[in-house]
Amino acid sequence: MLVGRDPEQLAVRRAMADARTGRSAVLGLVGEAGIGKSALLADAGEHAEGMRILRARGIESEADVPFAGLLELLRPALGALPGVPAPQAAALQGALALRPGGTRDRFAVGAGTLSLLAAYAEQSPVLVLIDDAHWLDAPSAEAILFAIRRLLADAVAVLIAVRDGHASLLDLAGLPIHRVTGLDRQATRELLTQAAGHAPSEDVARRLYAATAGNPLALLEVAPVAAGVVASEIDVPVPVSRRITEAFLDRSAPLPSRTRRALTLSAASHDGEPAVIARAAAALGLDLADLGPAEAAGLVSLRDGVVEFRHPLARAASYGDAPAAQRREMHRALAGALPDRDADRRAWHLASAATGPDEAVSAALQQAAERALRRSAYATSSAGFERAARLAEDDGLADQLLYASADAAWRAGAGERTEALLHELRARRPPGPLAACVMHLRGQMLADRGPVMEGHATLVAAAELAAQAGEPELGALILADAAHACFYGGAATTMAATTRQALALLPAQPSPRAAYVCRTAHGLALVMVGEGDLGAETIRDAAVILACAPELARDPSLLQWTVLGALWLREAGADQVIERAVTEGRRQAAGGQLGHLLDLASRHHATADRWTAAAAGFHEAIELARDTGSGTNLAAALAGLCWLEARQGKDQECRAHAREAQRLADALGVATHHVWTFAALADLELGAGHLQAALEHLREQQAMLDRLGIDDVDLSPIPELVETLVRLGDRAQADSLTGPYLAAAITKGQPWSGARAARCAGLLAADDALDPPFAQALALHAQTPDVFERARTQLAYGARLRRARRRIDARAQLRAALETFETLGAIPWVEQASAELAASGETARRRDVSTLDQLTARELQVALLLSRGLTTRVAAGQLFLSPKTVEYHLRHVYQKLGIRSRTELAALFKDTPSVVDPR
């Protein structure tokens, strides 16, 4: 029976009750050492009737053993692996060393963990108990966090105990947390009575309560020496963990020397495995029987030959109190006792036993780190490479190992650790290509997390080092990365110069990969600086290279270039190219790449009639960017979403997302997407009829484009400026802007900008000359998928016709515009088109355009995938959700849309792409 734990037990029972009714529940129990967290987990396990239990406990000495905690947790559930999507199952099996190989994306293991928990819970509710989660190895903690944050409608209750003041998976996770505090005075007396068999005096109870702040373990440990607790000690706050540690040391001090050595050996072991400890003890002239006095003193227990410490602090006390030489001796003995299959643990024990550089130990740790890397255990791999570097005798090898450590840390999402390792490496001045690799990694980190243009400068410097080291193709590829940073930074002229430099560095016969990337980057840059015709031709040439090397289309690091090229061209076939790239990203469960791909694909959909897909994609991209910590991708997706929301008339959402995007853009130097926020806010005001406010935002947008040197007519706000000025009555200024824009659009020669330029001409034409420019605009619109722009032109044309007293002609254009706006859900423009149609003498029958708008972002994602014929399980795998969570969202979709079947769902979304492979 737990004494004085009613509130905590109630919270735990509530979580378990939720799981029994098919709802997921996660609860973090946070408190100081000895406060009763483990007792609460044990009590939950004892009352888990009808539930299957999965347990894991973080062990400090296992913090560098990749996926040790995850394997302990999931081992009983591995029989459910056949119910996990194949790519996720493969990633999970590789991570747990159940099969060779692994995945390059760390989120695939988390997705596999989620799917396995969901599959295991299909038969009966599951209770997940994780104690001392602050000591879980980092790859396990990351996978578990990824999974539990996405649990919703599965019969899974997760209870996680974490020691206060320690970093853990609960930090900033946004999960429910219950702080476990000390017992009150009455509960303190009850616990002391229960432990001693008789009630303590009021004075003793008061003194012990004051000394321990009601910490249960501290109470039990200090109670035997209660008489020695003097008033001065009571009045001075004492850290509980030190008090408990001292109590454990007081118990071990009188023990025989052999017993204390056996305790140190057991504390140094990772899991108390009897065979290993027995062999190590024999090598030291000890025996497990030497632990008998320690067991009698209540420090350890021997159950079936397994050594278990009463409390992690007892283990820490025994280990920390031993002399350093003795600890090294124990680790050396344990390394010798481990079987061959435990090569990784042997390497870490040998490292703990080392007193200085040791080439053999360094090599063993390097091999362990490489194995961890193949299993996507990037944090563990980074730690292994770094420790191997510290033990390496050769400086050159140490440099290579430190770089491998930094690279693995970056893949693990550990930005601060990556920066620290790179700083050390730069100070060491490694020679040759390694110096270029170090600079390249630092540039990638800056480009992803800002400041973006500092990342560009660093990448250019890295390319120069690569060229000097005789690696020109590597230098060219690094310069392509630098050009991509320029795109985010909005530095168009610098981008073009960088890509020209990349092409100049390419050898006479470059690899298809280098040729494709560098040519695509150069084509994008040419478009940015206003050389649209040449840029489009260059991108098409690069696409030919890709078509001749199909293996490149499956390379996750190249998918972004594929989508960017298609997005820039806006030509036939772009849908298929973008959809294939996103499908490949989903197939590989490449969470790090998928967010960027979804953002780009959503921009493509938002410029067509697929706004539902765009909204779902932007929201998913934002979620993934937050998960991966990519500030630049987050700013981009937020800017894209607020631009779409502006056209939908979602005022509050648009402004909130624009503010967040602008804060990020300013902090990271992501100027291109700051430009998008001005365009979004201008569209929002223009749709609402706030012309002066729209004009201010449009001028801000143009001023920023001028400062950045971006001269692409597709990014220009001139058509919106012309329309706003005309509506404000300033035709002279509107006319002065139209001529240069029209010339630029003709030079680029692509229909999208040409149609917008012709619309400007139509807005300014005399009443008897307005038909030719508007007719030209509509003909060009027919060559693009952007139906919103076409409807804007039809609205402008109809308004001009009405004012020219051609009401019958006006109605045809206005009806077409209204129908498109209603279909898209462009509410402000529905209002404008309806008003114009009414002014022409016709009252429009308004359609309900708000149905899909009722769906949440997640419901939209689910509806889109299932409407294309995917099974629930396949859709769950692609969205990193469980099947029951998908079904949960689908029920809400049916309720909100008033439908009852997937056939009806498919009909509603028949013209909306899912950006997945239905197979």
Describe, in plain words, how this protein is organized in 3D.
This protein is mainly alpha-helical. Among the domains are: 6-179, Rossmann fold, CATH 3.40.50; 185-238, no CATH class; 251-337, Arc Repressor Mutant, subunit A; 431-551, Serine Threonine Protein Phosphatase 5, Tetratricopeptide repeat (Alpha Horseshoe); 852-908, Winged helix-like DNA-binding domain superfamily/Winged helix DNA-binding domain (Arc Repressor Mutant, subunit A, Orthogonal Bundle), CATH 1.10.10.10. Helices cover 67% and strands 4% of the residues. It contains 46 helices and seven strands. It has a five-stranded parallel β-sheet, sandwiched between helices. It is globular. Residues 227-238 and 913-919 have low confidence and may be disordered.
Q: How much of the residues is beta strand, in percent?
A: under 5%
CATH H-level homologous superfamily name of the domain at 6-179:
P-loop containing nucleotide triphosphate hydrolases
For the largest sheet, list the strands in their spatial order: 2-3-4-1-5
> In CATH terms, what is the architecture of the domain at 6-179?
3-Layer(aba) Sandwich
How many helices? The count is: 46
Number of strands: 7
The first-to-last residue Cα distance is 54 Å
**Which stretches are poorly predicted, pLDDT < 50 over at least 5 residues?**
227-238, 913-919
Oligomer: single chain
Sketch the major β-sheet: 5 strands, parallel
Work out the radius of gyration. Answer: 33 Å
The gross shape turns out to be: globular
Query: Average pLDDT value?
Result: 87
* Residues in helices, as a percent range: 55-70%
Which class of secondary structure composition applies to the elements? mainly alpha
